């Protein structure tokens, strides 16, 4: 159902478009989101959560009314069909649904919706996660620079893996767990804007974070084992990286496998601290929207708060960790709002001076293939620059010759 009425501006846009055609010039090339109408929403920030608790934290807050307008967007999940925005449309919030598929599909739908203009919008992932006690404790707030996809690997059941493997997971196209993958799908790793991340961290650090007695008691069970010292400290704000997998892992060995994969795929620069089920899907959708000039990947912020540990405390089991280890949930949810609202306010207050024109990244920003241009500082190199025979170029050529089609056996 078309319900966006064409106002005078849109009619001018159509007219200009026709005029441009006669000169061999399309308006779309100048103004990709034409027709922009008076009802197009141009948010300054879009907060992305994944399930209802991650929306509730934004309801009834003093800073803004996220229910100022509700926009039904074709292509969103049947469970969460609406984007919610303030009346002015400067702050929006949506639920993408859980898991990689829901995340990618929902963000694609919204990013390509003609109801919005996201070219200057900051997309902030704001959800809970499993947290690595080597880095931080439950209740803490993390901002990632790298987002990896560790379940995109071969897998043997641990009971059937070769004796000399440290895990059942093996990078695709490789022969043992610590070998760099020789076959890439393009979604293995994303890097976001580090300068923007630092600004977000600065804003979040002004928050008075929440903690509870139950969370503090649970953190204390990680005491007495030196590698987990950081995990026993009260909630703080951290810069560390995220691993996306549909598989919700619990236990030291699987968490360590995610950690090792993150180390491998980021060429040793990534510092794994959170495990979650969506962020790679969100970032791939934003990357494609950027390629289509509908969003700016350099405006992505990945914020996750620790609701539970990825691995068990000393003296306890992975199964106890999964089923009885959720005491961090309340502060994690509260801190999505408490830290997140500072980021929202920071962006709104600094809009004219700083954020409107964007934060120019100083690091490589994009995927492992170099899709947005530049040379990835992880992975085998860009497939798009012809300035050398990078590993990825060779890899893609090889695939192009059909040597690695279909379901491939390890070489
Ligand atoms: C938007 O949806 C919420 C929750 O469903 C509702 O409480 C609110 O009144 C709606 N806002 C408008 C403007 O209709
Ligand atoms: C691991 O063991 C398998 C046999 O189970 C062997 O084929 C392989 O070469 C070994 N790999 C390494 C890295 O030692
Ligand atoms: C992770 O890597 C370290 C260092 O290479 C290794 O000792 C450990 O066994 C690996 N863990 C898993 C679960 O593969
Ligand atoms: C954290 O939140 C809980 C529940 O919302 C509340 O009872 C508690 O007082 C808060 N604690 C702090 C330190 O803000
Ligand atoms: C990352 O590591 C792989 C495997 O060792 C290597 O082929 C690649 O050149 C490295 N990439 C960068 C950017 O250093």
UniProtKB/TrEMBL annotation:
Domain of life: Eukaryota
Example GO BP: transmembrane transport
Protease listed as a keyword: no
Pfam families xref list: NUP
GO terms under cellular component: endoplasmic reticulum
UniProt entry keywords in alphabetical sequence: Signal
Keyword Signal: yes
Signal peptide span: 1-24
Protein name: NUP-domain-containing protein
